[in-house]
Specification:
The complex is a heterotetramer, with two copies of chain A and two copies of chain B. Chain A is of the alpha/beta class. Helices cover 31% and strands 21% of the residues of chain A. Chain A has a six-stranded mixed sheet with strand order 1-2-5-3-6-7, sandwiched between helices. In chain A, helix 2 crosses helix 3. Chain B has helices at 3-19, 21-31, 36-49, 59-73, 78-92, 101-119, 129-141, 144-157, 181-203. Chain B starts with a helix and ends with a helix. Classes of the chains: A alpha/beta, B mainly alpha. Chains A, C: It holds the Pfam family Dak1.
Chain lengths: 331, 204, 331, 204
C-alpha cells in the first residue's frame, strides 16, 4: 500500500491531531469524538454549523472548520458515518442559544447517525435542525433508492450557510438558504482509478488500464457504469450532458463551476477539465460567475474528478463571496 | 437458554465479527465501499473492552446495553442497524433471564422489525434481512443447525438479487452477481453459533 | 495512462488556458510564450518577479502568479526548462523601471535558459537579476555536481520577495531577502510511486510494492536511494534526520514547517506526516511558528511528500505573513 | 560537402530526432526525467516548420540560423546545448558554402567547445560529449562509417560511467549501468547520417 500511514486504525485520529497541531489558536481537537472545532465555538450570537461524515474526503469536512464555514466536524472512520454518539456529543458541545444546524450528505449511515444523535441532543434541550445535501445526478432518484448522494456540491451549502450564520441569520433562515443552494446544485463524478482504504490496503475494485467508472460517488463504490477511457474533453462533455439538463441550467444563467479533484489527480489535469467546461458552458450561453478548481471533497487517493454547477442569484453569490478562514489555505 | 448462553451467543457474534474483519470488508468492496468488516470489528472490540462491566441483571438488560454500545460506537450504516437490532431484541425479552425457544424467536422478530424501521428496508432489498429473516423462520420451525443452513442458503441467494438499499443500491443492476456483505455476515455468524452450540450441548 | 488529457502535446497550453479562464480579471495568458501574468503587470512602482521552470509542478509556478507573489511565470513543457526565448520575451514584457527579478530553481536547463534569456533582455535595456534557489538537502553539493536542486522551499522565497516587492523594496533589497530566505531553507523529499509524464504515458521508473525512493527531486528522476517502505512516523524521522542537522536547526529556533504533497498523495496523509514532524521538532526545542500542509510543488501524479524547514526571524516571518492573492485558493 | 549536403545532414538529424522521440525519452527516464526525446522532437519539428524560410546564404549562416531556432524553441537542457552547438558550428565556417573535410572537423570541434562552455562539462562526465568527441576524432582520422562506429562504441561505453553533469548526476553511483541518453542520441544520428551518406554517395 503506497501510503503514509502508521497503524490504519489510527489513520483518522492522527490526521486530526496533525490538523489541530498545524492550526493552534483556531482549531481544537477532541479525540473522544473525532471532533475538530473552532477554538472559539460555540458562539452564542450565531447558529453553530456542524457536519460529520466518513473520513477520506479531506479537505471535507474537518479542514473547512473555521470562521465563515463550519463550527465543528465529527467524522467517522474512513468511509464510515460517525457513530451517533459523536453526533450527539458534538451537538451538545456546539449548543448555542440560536441553535445547531446539522449538515448531512445523503447516505443511509449518515442519516441514521444524525437522526439518532439529533433526537438525543434534543432530549437534552439542544435545538437542532438537519439539512440534507443531495447534489449527485449520477443516482436516479426513485422509490427504490435512498435518493441522490451528497457529494462535492456540499461545499457550496457549507459556504452559504456558514457565511449567513456569521451575518446573524437564524436557524430557519439558514435552513431556507441551505435548501435553496442545494436545490440549484448538481454534480457528477468520474474515476480513473479505484482508491485504497488504509485498513484494506488494496484498491477497492479492479479497473482495467483503459477503463473508467462514470458516475462515481465519493466512497470508492463503483459508479453508474464502466466505460472506456476517453479524452479529457470528451469526459467533460459527457459530464456536462448529465449535469446541465438535470436542473436544467439554461442559456442566460449565471453559475459557479467547480472542478473537484478526487484525491489522486494533479491540479494541472483539473485545469484541463476546467478549460473545456468553461468553453462549453459559454457556448451554451451560460455565464461562469465563480470558478473553483481544486480538491474539495475527495475519495482518498482516487484519480478522478467531479464537475459541479450552482445556479447563482445575488443572494447566493454574495454568500459565496463572503470571507472565510479555514485550514486549507496556502499561506 | 440461560443468561450464560445469551452471553455466549453475543460473545460469539463479537468474536466472529472481529475474526472476519478482512473477509467482510472484501465482500463490501465488490459493490460497496469496503468498510463493513472494519466497522463491525472496531465496534465489537469496543464491546469486548467493556465486556465485564456490562449490566447482567437479566438477558433483556444485557442485550439492550450491548445494543447501546454498538449503536453509539460503531459508525457507518451498521452501527445504527446492529445497535437497534440488539436494543429491540433486549426490549422484547425485558426482565427475562432464561429464554424459551419462543422468546428467542420473538426476540429475533423484534430485532428484524427494528432493522426494517431504522433502515426503511424489507426482505428482498438485498440486505442482512435477507439472511436474518429466513434464519428466524427456520429457527422457529426447527433447530439452530437447520436455521444456520437456511441463513447460508439465503445469503448465497442474495447473489442473484439487485440491491435496493444500502450503498450497493447506487450501482443498480451491477449489484447482481455478488452476495450481500451483511447477509453473508449473518450466515457466517449463524454457522458459528450453531457449531459452538453443538459442542456446548455436548459438553453440558 | 490514467490521466485527464487530450493530446499530450497540448497538456501545458490547455492547462494554462484553463487557468486563465478560471481567473478572468486577475490573470492573462499569452500562448506564444506559455506566459501566465498578472493582468495588471508590469507595475512601474515595483520590481517584477518572474519564475519559469518545467511544468508538472503545479501549483508551482503558474498558480502562484498574483498579488503578493509572482508577476509572471513562463513554464516550459513537462519537466523541461522553458526555452530561453520564453524567458527573454517574459522579461521584456515584465520590464519595470525598478527592474525584473528572475527566480531560478537550480537545474542545469533552467540556469542556461535564464542566463541566456537575461543576457538578451539586458541587451534590450531591461534590468534583470537572477536569484537561484537550492534548498534540496538530498543532493550533496560538490565539485562534481551542479549543486543542490531547488524544490518546494522555492515557495518561501517567492512569498518573501513577492511581499517585499509589494512594499516597494528595490532589486538589490529583493536579492538580499531572497538569498537570506534561501539560506535558511532546507527540504528533503520521498516518493512512494513514480510519476507518469503525459507524453510518456507510463511511469518514469519501476518501484516495487514495498519500496520507496528517498531523497527525490521534483522531476520524477530517481532519488538518493531506494529503501523499503516504512511507517509514516519513521519516514518523517528519517527526513528530519537529513534536514535538521544540515543548516542546522537548533533548540530555540523558530521555524516554518511545510509538508508538501507531490501530487498523488491525499491531504489526509500529509497531516499524518505533519503531526509527527511537529511533535519531533517540538521535542528538539524547535518552535513551529508557521505551518504549511498542502501541495506547493509537485511531480505530476507522484505519491510522495517533502518536508521543508525555514528558520524564521522577524523580517522573514513578517513577509510570510503578508497577504497575497493567487489562483490556488478555496474561495 | 556542398550546401545541399549540409542541408541533408541537418535534415537527417531532425528526422532522426523526431522518429526516435519515444526511444530517446525512455533512455532519459532510466536515471533522468524522461523529457529528452520529447524536447528534441518538438524542437526539431519547429525547425522543420520554418525549414524553407531558413537563410541559406552559405553553410555558416544556415547552421547559425538552425542553432538559433533550436536554442530559442527547445526547452530543457538540450535546447541551450544543441542550439549552442549548431551556432558555434556555423560560426566556425562563416561565409563558406562548400566545406572541406578539415572544415567539417573544425566545425565539430567548435560545437564541442560550445557545449563544454555552456554545460560546464567535459569528456568523462557521461554526457553527449562522450559520443561526440570520439565521433569527431574518428572522422578526423577516417571515414563517416568509422566515425559512426566510434560514436556507437563510445555511447555504449557510457553505461559503465557515473554521471557528473545533467540530471542523472543526482543519482550518483546509481547512474552506472545504463547508457547516457544524449550520447546514444549522437550515436543513432551518426549511424543514420553514415547510412544516408553512403546511399547518396552511390547515387551521386
Ligand atoms: N437500509 C438498510 N437496511 C438494512 N440493511 C442495510 C441497509 N443498508 C445497508 N444494509 C446492510 O449493511 C451492509 C453494509 O454495511 P456498511 O458497510 O456498514 O454500510 P455503508 O454502506 O454505510 O458502508 C450491507 O451489506 C447490507 O446488508
Ligand atoms: N551539463 C551538461 N553538459 C553536456 N551535456 C549535458 C549536460 N547536462 C545534460 N547533458 C546531456 O543532456 C541529456 C539530457 O537532456 P535533457 O533531458 O533535455 O535534460 P534535462 O531533462 O536534464 O534538463 C543527457 O543525457 C546528457 O547527454
Ligand atoms: Mg461506509
Ligand atoms: Mg460499507
Ligand atoms: Mg527535463
Ligand atoms: Mg531529461
Amino acid at each position: 500500500m503506497k501510503k503514509f500511514v502508521n497503524d490504519p486504525k489510527s489513520f483518522v485520529p492522527e490526521m486530526l491531531e496533525g490538523l489541530a497541531l498545524a492550526n493552534p489558536g483556531t482549531l481544537k481537537y477532541i479525540p473522544a469524538y473525532n471532533l475538530i472545532m473552532r477554538a472559539d465555538a460555540p458562539n452564542e450570537n450565531k447558529v453553530s454549523i456542524v457536519q460529520g461524515s466518513g473520513s477520506g474526503h479531506e479537505p471535507a469536512h474537518v479542514m473547512v472548520v473555521g470562521q465563515g464555514m463550519l463550527d465543528a466536524a465529527c467524522p467517522g472512520d474512513v468511509f464510515a458515518a460517525p457513530p451517533m454518539d459523536y453526533v450527539y456529543e458534538t451537538a451538545k458541545l456546539m449548543a448555542s442559544p440560536k441553535g445547531v444546524l446539522l449538515l448531512v450528505n445523503n447516505y443511509t449511515g449518515d442519516r441514521m447517525a444524525f437522526d439518532m444523535g439529533k433526537e438525543m441532543a434534543e432530549a437534552d434541550g439542544v435545538r437542532c435542525e438537519i439539512l440534507t445535501v443531495n447534489d449527485d445526478v449520477a443516482v436516479q432518484d426513485s422509490l427504490y433508492t435512498v435518493g441522490r448522494r451528497g457529494v462535492a456540491g456540499n461545499f457550496f451549502v457549507i459556504k452559504a450557510v456558514g457565511a449567513a450564520s456569521e451575518q446573524g441569520a437564524d436557524l430557519d433562515e439558514l435552513l431556507r438558504i441551505g435548501r435553496k443552494v442545494n436545490d440549484v446544485t448538481r454534480t457528477m463524478g468520474v474515476a480513473l482509478t479505484a482508491c485504497t482504504p488504509p485498513a484494506k490496503g488494496s484498491p477497492l475494485f479492479d479497473l482495467g488500464g483503459d477503463e473508467m467508472e462514470f458516475g462515481v460517488g465519493i466512497h470508492g463504490e463503483p459508479g453508474r457504469e464502466r466505460r472506456s477511457l476517453a479524452s479529457a474533453d470528451q469526459i467533460v462533455d459527457d459530464l456536462l450532458d448529465a449535469v446541465v439538463p438535470d436542473l436544467p441550467y439554461n442559456s442566460g444563467d449565471r453559475v459557479a463551476l467547480m472542478i473537484n479533484g478526487l484525491g489522486g489527480t494533479p491540479i494541472s489535469e483539473l485545469y484541463i477539465l476546467y478549460r473545456r467546461a468553461h468553453q462549453r458552458l459559454t457556448e451554451r450561453g451560460i455565464t461562469i460567475g465563480r470558478s473553483y478548481v481544486n480538491e474539495y471533497c475527495t475519495s482518498l487517493d482516487m484519480a478522478g474528478a467531479s464537475l459541479t454547477l450552482v445556479r447563482l442569484d445575488d443572494e447566493i453569490e454574495g454568500l459565496l463571496e463572503a470571507p472565510a478562514d479555514v485550514a486549507i489555505r496556502v499561506f | 437458554m440461560s443468561l450464560a448462553d445469551t452471553e455466549l451467543v453475543v460473545r460469539t457474534i463479537a468474536d466472529t465479527a472481529i475474526e472476519n474483519e478482512k473477509y467482510f470488508g472484501d465482500l463490501d468492496s465488490v459493490v460497496g465501499d469496503g468498510d463493513f468488516g472494519y466497522s463491525l470489528a472496531r465496534g465489537f472490540e469496543k464491546l469486548l473492552e467493556g465486556w465485564d462491566d456490562l449490566d447482567r441483571t437479566d438477558a433483556g438488560t444485557f442485550l439492550k446495553r450491548t445494543g447501546m454500545v454498538i449503536a453509539s460506537r460503531i459508525g457507518g450504516t451498521s452501527g445504527p442497524l446492529w445497535g437497534t437490532a440488539f436494543m429491540r431484541a433486549g426490549g422484547a425479552v425485558a426482565g427475562a433471564t432464561d429464554l424459551s425457544h419462543e422468546q428467542v424467536v420473538a426476540m429475533l422478530r423484534a430485532a428484524i422489525e427494528g432493522i426494517k424501521a431504522r433502515g426503511q428496508s424489507d426482505v428482498g432489498d438485498k440486505t442482512l434481512l435477507d439472511a436474518l429473516v429466513p434464519f428466524t423462520d427456520a429457527l422457529e420451525a426447527g433447530t439452530i443447525t437447520e436455521a444456520a443452513a437456511a441463513a447460508r442458503a439465503a445469503a448465497d441467494a442474495t447473489s442473484g438479487m439487485v440491491a435496493k438499499r444500502g450503498r450497493a443500491a447506487y450501482t443498480g443492476e451491477r449489484s447482481r452477481g455478488s452476495v450481500d456483505a451483511g447477509a453473508t455476515a449473518v450466515a457466517v455468524i449463524a454457522e458459528r453459533i450453531s457449531e459452538i452450540w453443538q459442542k456446548q450441548g455436548a459438553s453440558s
